[in-house]
Amino acid sequence: MAGNWKMNKTSEEARSFLGDFKLFVKDARDCDIVICAPFTLLPLLKKELENTNIKVGAQNIFYEDSGAYTGEVSALMVKEFCSYVIIGHSERRKYFNETNEIVNKKVKKALERGLKVIFCLGETLEEREKGITKQIVETQLREGLSKTTIENIVIAYEPVWAIGTGKTATPAQAEEVHIFLRELLRQLYNQEIADSTRIIYGGSVNQENASAILNMPNIDGCLPGGASLEASSFSNIIKS
Question: Which residues are identified as catalytic?
Answer without folding.
Answer: 89, 158
